[in-house]
Recover the amino acids of this structure.
């Protein structure tokens, strides 16, 4: 084993500058835009802009107004800026600095990530920004501000409040569950919240210190997403049933039916306004925002359902009745926003007139009352995260050459001023990826994006497999920071002469519910691996690819598939970079559920663990001969580092060549730009060294 030590200037970026059309640092110099929100009245918008690790919040008022920077943070400190929300007057903005909001679990002691190795312990802090500047208010998360200006937030699973100047920070009330999903009533006098308890969750309503908490009629299910009616008399919420929590659920997918409930708060009663069917497709949506429940004009509730195999928008009367479908089939709806008057829905979808739009995102609008769908954007670009405004919608627009800028569409889209990329950003030199497809062994059509380098002759090739796995890689930069980075690295590899194929394997989104939920996927049989090996076979048949020099790289679930490729097909994949991948499904199951059975009736433990093990890369380690670079941050809260320690030990025992890069204090989505730069540089250097003569 070679233990890698990567120096600060980092390998390929400078050493090969004369031979490559771009340097790695330049490919990574893109500004990344996220967190776009609008004020309640739709007059202002805010967003986070990150440039080489430096994060700040910007605000704009109207399409012609120059954006103003609301924060003055500097340096690549790895502190997230999230949870943006405007005060009711639209003049001040709340946000959270710090934390890991994509983690599957908290660190021991609820420690916040410390990727910069600061000697001072970082905290997850609530901040407030306005014309006078930005200031920290309190140590808490997930803020919600009332019509009267009261700020509620979450600390250690309990609800706290704080004043706008940071004073008066105190716990608002006690609840035996863990609170989430804070929602103030329209008059600002009552606070609805989700109380997560053992095996189920319910909705509570706090009405002041003199009254006990009112709990809406509960069930054995999981209640969530409380949404107030405009008049403040009712609360709509989702109710879903997960079913058995034993090992058997890992063997076969079970339907997760759900319903929309409407409660009369004063009467303490609730009734069902709508219920899903009971098929697998009727299961609770597992996309951004879940059900995306909104209380809209005309006393209608709008939500998402995949009952037709595609995540689509529906509306149902709050009083109950049949649901009206608002959008069509053949695409998935994401990122939903309701106009300030409640009459219009804006959403992103992989749809449009161009045949390649199934691998893009565009923004559309439709009336809550029904009617034709209107495209807000179109063309070869990508647009997402609509935030409805008083005169239209704001959105983030990206392309094959640009990671995203904010546009205000009223109705025509105009890019707001001041969003210029650093001068060294290599976006203009990036290739335009091509949509390609091939057949998996079982006949399923699999799609991908091909990055073709300039020049002629046979080239080494690399297969890229994304993580998630409910993700879709696009014909341009991604709306997720993790995959914007992956896109930039794939562009750099193409500039270095690699043919790069990014695979949208089954388990991913964008191709229907059935594609996303194969019966033999993941720990039930790893059926998605056939999409990966068929991608490599497809590359082997190309005249511009040297079939003897194909590698693979990916992170998270992509790391799992990279390890699986090397273990099952070292004859095809000659090298790989495996970033924080899962290597033993059975270990993950035991860590999640425990070693014992849930009850005498849960008899499937052994079969579930055996199937999970056979679906894991480590089960096939005897066939692993190709060299690999293993990468992991040791504060990963999504995939435990023991999942990388295990293959390192197995490969060492079998004398299989491997290298490793462990980054202290970093999490799953490396928070510092410097962390990603180190990972990308190591990945590129390893693939070049292993696959080029």
């Amino acid at each position: 084993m070679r233990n890698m030590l990567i120096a600060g200037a980092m390998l390929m970026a400078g050493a090969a500058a004369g031979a490559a059309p771009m340097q790695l640092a330049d490919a990574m110099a893109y500004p990344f835009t996220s967190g776009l929100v609008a004020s309640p009245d739709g007059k202002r918008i805010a967003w986070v802009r990150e440039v080489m690790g430096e994060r700040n919040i910007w605000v704009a008022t109207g399409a012609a107004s120059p954006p103003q920077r609301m924060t003055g943070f500097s340096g690549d400190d790895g502190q997230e800026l999230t949870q943006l929300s405007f005060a009711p007057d639209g003049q001040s903005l709340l946000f959270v600095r710090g934390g890991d909001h994509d983690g599957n679990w908290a660190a021991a002691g609820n420690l916040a990530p410390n990727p910069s190795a600061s000697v001072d312990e970082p905290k997850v802090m609530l901040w407030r920004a306005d014309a006078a500047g930005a200031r920290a208010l309190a140590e808490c998360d997930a803020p919600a501000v009332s019509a009267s200006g009261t700020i509620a937030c979450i600390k250690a699973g309990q609800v706290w409040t704080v004043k706008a100047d940071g004073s008066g920070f105190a716990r608002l009330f006690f609840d035996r569950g863990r609170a989430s999903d804070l929602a103030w009533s329209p008059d600002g006098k009552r606070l609805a919240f989700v109380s997560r308890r053992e095996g189920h969750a319910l909705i509570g309503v706090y009405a002041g210190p003199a009254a006990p908490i009112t709990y809406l009629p509960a069930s054995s299910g999981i209640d969530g997403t409380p949404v107030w009616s405009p008049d403040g008399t009712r609360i709509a919420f989702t109710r879903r049933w997960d079913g058995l929590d034993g090992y058997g659920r890992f063997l076969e997918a079970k339907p997760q039916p759900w319903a929309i409930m409407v409660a009369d708060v004063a009467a303490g009663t609730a009734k069902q306004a709508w219920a899903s069917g009971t098929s697998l497709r009727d299961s609770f949506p597992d996309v951004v925002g879940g059900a995306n429940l909104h209380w809209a004009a005309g006393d209608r509730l709008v939500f998402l359902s995949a009952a037709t195999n595609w995540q689509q928008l529906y509306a149902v009367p709050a009083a109950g009745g049949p649901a009206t479908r608002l959008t069509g089939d053949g695409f998935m709806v994401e990122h939903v926003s309701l106009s300030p008057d409640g009459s219009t829905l804006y959403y992103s979808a992989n749809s449009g007139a161009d045949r390649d739009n199934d691998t893009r995102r565009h923004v559309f609008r439709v009336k809550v009352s029904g009617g034709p769908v209107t495209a807000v954007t179109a063309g070869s670009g990508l647009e997402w995260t609509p935030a409805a405004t008083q005169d239209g919608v704001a959105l983030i627009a990206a392309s094959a050459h640009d990671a995203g800028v904010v546009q205000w569409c009223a109705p025509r889209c105009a890019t707001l001023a001041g969003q210029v990329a650093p001068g060294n950003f290599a976006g203009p030199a990036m290739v335009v990826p091509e949509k390609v497809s091939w057949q998996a062994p079982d006949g399923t059509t699999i799609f991908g994006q091909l990055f073709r380098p300039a020049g002629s002759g046979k080239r080494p090739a690399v297969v890229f497999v994304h993580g998630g796995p409910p993700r879709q890689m696009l014909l341009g930069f991604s709306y997720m920071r993790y995959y914007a980075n992956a896109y930039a690295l794939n562009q750099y590899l193409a500039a270095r002469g690699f043919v790069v194929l990014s695979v949208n394997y089954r388990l991913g989104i964008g191709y229907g519910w059935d594609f996303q939920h194969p019966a033999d996927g993941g720990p039930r049989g790893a059926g998605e691996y056939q999409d990966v090996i068929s991608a490599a076979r497809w590359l082997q048949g190309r005249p511009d690819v040297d079939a003897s020099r194909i590698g693979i790289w990916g992170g998270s679930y992509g790391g799992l598939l990279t390890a699986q490729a090397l273990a099952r097909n070292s004859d095809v994949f000659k090298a790989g970079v495996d970033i924080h991948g899962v290597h033993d499904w059975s270990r993950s199951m035991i860590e999640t559920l425990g070693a014992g059975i849930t009850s005498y009736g849960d008899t499937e433990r052994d079969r579930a663990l055996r199937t999970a093990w056979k679906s894991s890369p480590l089960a096939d380690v005897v066939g692993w001969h190709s060299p690999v670079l293993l990468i992991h941050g040791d504060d990963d809260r999504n995939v435990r580092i023991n999942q990388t320690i295990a293959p390192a030990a197995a490969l060492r025992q079998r004398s299989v060549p491997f290298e490793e890069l462990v980054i202290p204090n970093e999490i799953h989505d490396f928070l510092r730009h410097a962390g990603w730069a180190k990972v990308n540089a190591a990945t590129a250097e390893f693939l070049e060294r292993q696959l080029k003569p």
Summary: The chain has ten helices and 41 strands.
